[in-house]
Every structure is written in structure tokens, then in C-alpha cells.
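Curious: why this fold?
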Amino acid sequence: MAKVHMVLQGKGGVGKSVLAATLAQYKSAKGQTPLCIDTDPVNATFEGYKALNVRRLNIMDDDEINSRNFDALVELIAPSKDDVIIDNGASSFVPLSHYLITNEVPAILQEMGHELVVHTVITGGQALLDTVSGFAQLADQYPSECLFVVWLNPYWGAIEHEGKSFEQMKAYTNNKDRVSAIIQIPELKKETHGRDFSEMLQARLTFDEALAMESLTIMTRQRLKIIRKQLFGLMDNAAVL
């Protein structure tokens, strides 16, 4: 059974494309050739990773789903033996979710022998409540065929509100049974590991590409190796992946 990993969050700029690219690299490291698709109508960041062979597919016409283009997306997914990774934009969050649910797409994927895994990001800082709300919407609206993976991204600050961690928030406790895994992205020291990782992301490089670059210092490459090991180790522990 191939899994269809769909990255969804209604708030922009929270790390969805980073998540998609990291997941694609993890799958490749496990011997798969994941089918990578970027449907973000505004910022096609995922497509920028040339080494991942990401396909661009615009499923939007203004504020509505283009049903013919979405049909093409399903046709791409249908025969896939390896996992599929789809990065979606914040601007298409509401119409895409509505379209998926009203057309019973999770059930269609299940009939094909695929499984839908919804990945969503929770961030600290000003976007905390918006991202928590986005997760609650997804968990409330999506049917039981869907599995959920929550990524906690501390880049903009601690993920806590009024002294409560995400796991203590009502949005999580009310939907705990829907969540198959929580992945806590490690907090990186900004001057060293954080800077190296950020520069790699800005250049749209994979870990393998960056580690092969002799123009990078030995210690930069060492720090990137450590980050990759940490991220992949966390994903190993999330059995749903």
C-alpha cells in the first residue's frame, strides 16, 4: 500500500515545504522513489528542489478548485507503488479541504489501496493559535480514513499557550485519537546548526547535495549530517511514515 502524504495548514510560511522536502529525502533514503507534487498556486517552494523531481500541478482557478486538474492529480497518484508527497499552499487550504471531503477523496484513495496521511505544522510565536486552529479544523472535518501527523516547529518560539504545551491544549486533547504521531522538530542553535540548515533550505538543496559540496566547510557539513540524523531518527519513530 502506498501512502499519500498531504501537507496541509491554513497559515503560510510555517515550514510546509521544508516538511515535504524532508519527508521526500527520508523516503529516498529508505530506497523509495517518492512521487513529489507541488500544488501551491502562489509559492512553489517544493518544486524548487530539483533533485527531488517535483511535479508542479496547479489545481486552483482563482479561489476554486479546478476539477479537471484535480482529476489529473488523482490519475497521477493511482498507479504509484511508492509513496506520494503533496505540498499544498495556504491559499488553497479551505477550498482543497472542502473538495477532498465533499468528493470523498480519502475513501477513493483507500479503494485504490492507498492511505491518506495528513501532515500539519504547529509553530510557536505569533502563528501559534492560527496553526492550532488549522489543525483542529482538519481533525474535525476529515473522515476516519485519514491518519494525522503533527509537526511541532519551534523556529519562531516555544509552542505553548498560557503555560500549556500543544499536548495539553484543548485542540489536541479533543482530537488525540486522530493523531498517529507527533514529531518535535529540534530547536537549532541559530548561529551554527540553524544558520547552516537555513542556508541549505534557501538554496533549495537536499542534504545529499549539500554534503557533497566541497565549497562548504567540514564543520558545516558535519552539522548538516547531525541535523539529518536527528530528523530521520524522529521520522523512524513515527511508525505511520
Summary: The mean pLDDT is 95. The chain is about 40% helix and 20% strand. The radius of gyration is 17 Å.
